[in-house]
Amino acid sequence: MSWNVIHDGDGSASRIVLKEHTGSTAEVLFLGGQVISWKNERREELLFRSNKTLWKPPKAFRGGIPISFPQFGTFGSLERHGFARNRVWLLDDSPSPLPAANSQSTVDLILKSTEEDLKIWPHRFEVRLRISLSAGKLTLIPRVRNIDNKPFSFTFSLRNYLSVSDISEVRVEGLETLDYFDNLQRGERYTEQADAITFDSETDRVYLSTPTKTAIIDHEKKRTYVLQKDGMADAVVWNPWDKKAKSLPDLGDEDYKKMLCVDSAAVETPIILKPSEEWRGRQELSTVSSSYCSGQLDPRKVLYG
């Protein structure tokens, strides 16, 4: 179990490749600290990556798991989703106080505020990210520390672009009965009425006070993604559908059929840090073989069993 660094010519696509003993792999860009690939032991790609991804730093890569910090979306005055995804992260040689991850292939990255950052967001910070790969599981542990002499607040998300067979064959369970902000309706607040979330049109919602586990069931692939999280109370569900997909220059016209974003997020209630305080989140993505229609796996057992 190991990792190595692959450098490209101009550094825009320099990345870390993690490997573990069953054959699964993950790739992480230094640009944005962004996971861009997660393959299982059968070499199947589990994260979506756009066919038209534009490698034009500092623009973030469309796909994988981009990070929003210190602002999610347009919930603030900064550029959309903040600036952390547009900065080059560094290897973190001293990721204390996290314990060593001896049983996994693990890498630690760090992003520190610069004088340029302070011009647009006047707060000194350190963001650390641990990425750990083990059999059937990808774990991300983000941490934000206030190294300033005054408090600050921020919103945050890990946007998970999941690879699916066909968006019309996918359902999300675990978010039913919850309140959500509908970004397609000027952020109005609604309550989810469906037994599970299914997709037949553009969806852009922030679900509030969500449980720690969510199941994303792909009927055609007979695969269920299990998203487990801590420290990030909200969940964002997004698919652009056909009209919006055609308006995005770095997304193929038909790509919306093969992707679904389910984010771990802290949006409704910003995180407040006093000087020297640190916030820690955790996200664990795993997959289980499933066939909901044939009864081989009841998603309720995944969520609550």
TrEMBL record:
GO terms for molecular function: carbohydrate binding; glucose-6-phosphate 1-epimerase activity. InterPro entries: Aldose_1/G6P_1-epimerase, G6P_1-epimerase, Gal_mutarotase_sf_dom, GH-type_carb-bd. PANTHER family: APOSPORY-ASSOCIATED PROTEIN C-RELATED, GLUCOSE-6-PHOSPHATE 1-EPIMERASE. This is glucose-6-phosphate 1-epimerase. Its EC number is 5.1.3.15. It comes from the Eukaryota. GO terms for cellular component: cytoplasm. One of its GO terms (biological process) is carbohydrate metabolic process. Keywords: Isomerase. It catalyses: alpha-D-glucose 6-phosphate = beta-D-glucose 6-phosphate. It is an enzyme of class 5 (isomerase). It comes from Solanum verrucosum. Pfam families: Aldose_epim. Belongs to the glucose-6-phosphate 1-epimerase family.
